[in-house]
Structures are given as structure tokens and as C-alpha cells.
What does this fold into?
Amino acid sequence: MTKKILIIGLGITGISCIKFFIKKGIIPYVMDSRINPPYIEEIPSSVKYCIGSFNKDWILNANLIVISPGISLFHPLLIDAAKKGIKIIGDIELFYNSTKTPIIAITGTNGKSTVTNMIGKIINNYYSAGIGGNIGYPALDLLSSFQNFYVIEISSFQLETIKKFKPFISVILNISSDHIDRYPLGIKQYQKTKLKIYKNSSICIYNANDVLTYPNNLQTNQQYISFGIKKGKYQLYKNHNNNYLKINNNIILNFNNTKLIGTHNYVNALAVLAIADALNIPRTISLKYICNYQLNNHTLQIIYKKNGVTWINDSKSTNVDSTKAALNFLGKNKRIWLLLGGYDKNCEFHLLKKYLMNNKINIYCFGLASKKIMSLYPKAIPVKTMADAIKKISKLLKRDDIVLLSPACSSVDQFIDFKDRGTKFIELVKQNN
It folds into this structure.
């Protein structure tokens, strides 16, 4: 083999990278620090792999290293490799280098999946679009079929490794504190990573209410489009009990006539329409899909109602801002049993104080974040698992109560991912009712 290509990380992204190189006739090396990586059985027999630790010789003698999103560039061996001049990229850069199809790249702390799905459906009714990335379908796997556009959800981890990545449209929905365990310098470092998405983009779409999303290096060859609540070109305007979508002071849509739930999702729809308009998709098509769009599972998903009690699965809330949005939507007047906790990404739980001091909110916390939550909110009740919380809560419920799983944390301490956590929640609720 004339070129040594090393893939680090054996998750769904790592497997897509292996398949990508094998299709090109290149047999890569693969490694994962976990003793039992989830996709080890999918490695072709021709591929050499190392698990349980990082192989220093393989890293320092590679010509190209492709890392999965979960692998930090700050790993000492990768720092040494970079110093040697070894190129280190991720699957998004590999994907971009392999296609000339225009790319719509979407990032943000919250709402990425909703916007990616919504705009993907709209585009597929007028052009054709491949939808993937951080949403759960690897970007590289999209290359197998021709499309007019690719709609890619991109995480900050994936943005760390882009070099020449040039999307046609790039969008940052919002930026708030998240993954601070990965970014020791805090939110400014996280923001800097997110802003990389704009660098080579032709059209930059940003949140007028969130200065952290503003493009910082304005260029004459780029177009800038904004959206926001009472700000930007695409505006959410509230009047009494109605929520309107306005463009240039013209009311385009009453959100109360849609299936969307919550202000945060109305704002997501503003971004979607901004993208659709930039692609010259007729408004009639865009508005039809916005009106009929149903939220993804695990996002404010009502899963069960019995005896006046409502059970809501919001497992997709993996950070504090997302949980705030859920509590905002539900309001102050309902008695809420909140399941909070999981893997602590240095979450700023104190930002929930305004909500959690409400005497109508009862907190049950589980997972690695429990101690931190209890230190801030002594009334929180610690349990070992989500199952324990559901058993205890089920005995205390009264008519009109709401049980809300909106953990504000990652799921990886006790579950495979947020989908697994949400699915287990649904199963447990049905078992206890």
C-alpha cells in the first residue's frame, strides 16, 4: 500500500469511512480506544484494526488520518501527528472533496435535526436532496446516489476538522453553552468552531437574536440573510395569541394554523423558509410543508395520556437551552414531574434556576450529573436510573400532571444515544401504566 490511511473511531461514521475507501480500492487501518466498539463486526476481514487503545506507531506513520466526531483533535498523539505534518480530517471534508453537488450545511446548538428534516422534505418536493450527516445517516453514504442538493446536519465536532469545505448555503440556528467538556476555553472556543461553517459559503443564514451566530468575517462575495423574533428579514411576530411569520413586514403565515409546537420551532421554520427561498422553491410548496410538518420523535413527543396525566418524551434535549425551551412551552401553571440528568458535559444547570424554583416542578435526577443537579437544587430527588424515577413518580400523579423527560444532558452514561433513551422511556411508561 503506497498510502497509509488511518481511520480512528468505530461508530457509524467510522464504518462509512471504511466503506468509502474500500470502494476506491484502498484498504485503511482502523482503531478505536474502546475495548468493544459498537460496529466491530462490520469491519471487513481485509482491514487491520486495533481496539482498546490508540496505536502510536500507526498514528505517527500514517499519511492521512480520518477521525470520527467523537475523537478530539486535542488528543496528545493527534497533536504529535499534526506537528509531523500528517493531515487530519473528518468525514465531512472527505465528503466535500468527493462531490460537486451543492451542499446546504446546518448547525446550531438546538434545532439542527428539525431544520434539516424540514428543508429536506421541501427540497425533495421540487428538486431532489440527500439528507444526512450528524442526523444519523453518514454523509459519505449519500454519495451512492445522484441528487440536486445535499442537506447536511453538522455538529461542532465535525466542524473542527473541515479545511476547504465549501457549502452553497450555511446556517447557524443558535449558539449556547454545550459540550464544554470538549472546549476547555469555554463558549468562545465553541462559537469559533461553529463559525467555521461560514468561511467558504456563498450564502450565510444567521439568527438575528443571537449575536454569537453572526458571521465575523464579512466578505463581498457572500450573501447574508437573517431571521429572528421581531428581527431580521424573516421574522416571528406575536400578536395576542397568534404567532405570525413575516417577511419585509408582510404576514406570510399564522403558525397557529400549523402542527408546529413552541416558539423555538416557529423560529426554526423561519430558517427553513429562508433556505427554501434562497433555492427559489415556490412559496406555496414551502408553506405547505411547514404547515403540515410533524416534529421528530423524541422532541416534545406526547407518548401517553391517561387519567388526565400527560407523558412527554423530549429525550432530544441534550443541553440546558433545549430543556428551557420545553419548560417555556409547557408554561408555569402545570404541575410537572421533570426527569433530568445523564452524562454531564459541564452543563450549566444554574441557567435553569428561574424555571426549577417553581414549586410546581418536581425534579427527579439520574445519571452522572445527579450530584451536580442536587448541589444546585437540593429539592431534587436522586434515583439510580430513569426506570426508578418512573416507578416512583407513577405512584404520586394527579389529574392534569405532566411527566417530562427533558434531561438537559447527553445520554451516553446509561444509553446508546438520545433515541435509545427516548425509546426506553416510552417502553417504561407503557409498562407502568
